[in-house]
Design a protein that fits this description.
binds zinc ion; 1 helix; single chain; 2 domains; two-stranded antiparallel ribbon; mainly beta; about 35% strand; 3-stranded antiparallel beta sheet
Length: about 100
């Protein structure tokens, strides 16, 4: 019987990729936020396979500002390039932010 044996070549547990860069012609690195041992969100960096640079670039998210339609407060959020802009902040509409 056929079994799905597809392997994940890359670590997909990263909470939020915020940058991909190569320094001094050396190795590619990905910068990402994730939870540390104390369950706090921290910045991490990791060497990556150059063949997967495109993958991490697609996953990369940028920090944006917007004004909430409901409460009028400014809020910050991360989004990927092709995701739509949220109009309401985390408190007014928590459901729109899914990870
Ligand atoms: Zn709001």
């Amino acid at each position: 019987m056929y079994k799905n044996k597809s392997k994940t070549v890359h670590n997909c547990t990263m909470l939020r990729v915020i940058g991909v860069s190569k320094k001094h012609n050396s190795v590619w690195r990905v910068y990402f936020h994730d939870y540390n041992d104390d369950d706090k969100i921290c910045l991490f960096t990791k060497k990556i396979n150059p063949l997967l640079v495109w993958f991490y670039k697609l996953k990369k998210q940028k920090l944006y500002n917007n004004i909430c339609d409901v409460c009028g407060n400014e809020f910050k959020f991360y989004k990927k390039r092709f995701e739509k802009m949220p109009d309401e902040c985390f408190e007014c509409n928590p459901d729109q932010f899914e990870y």
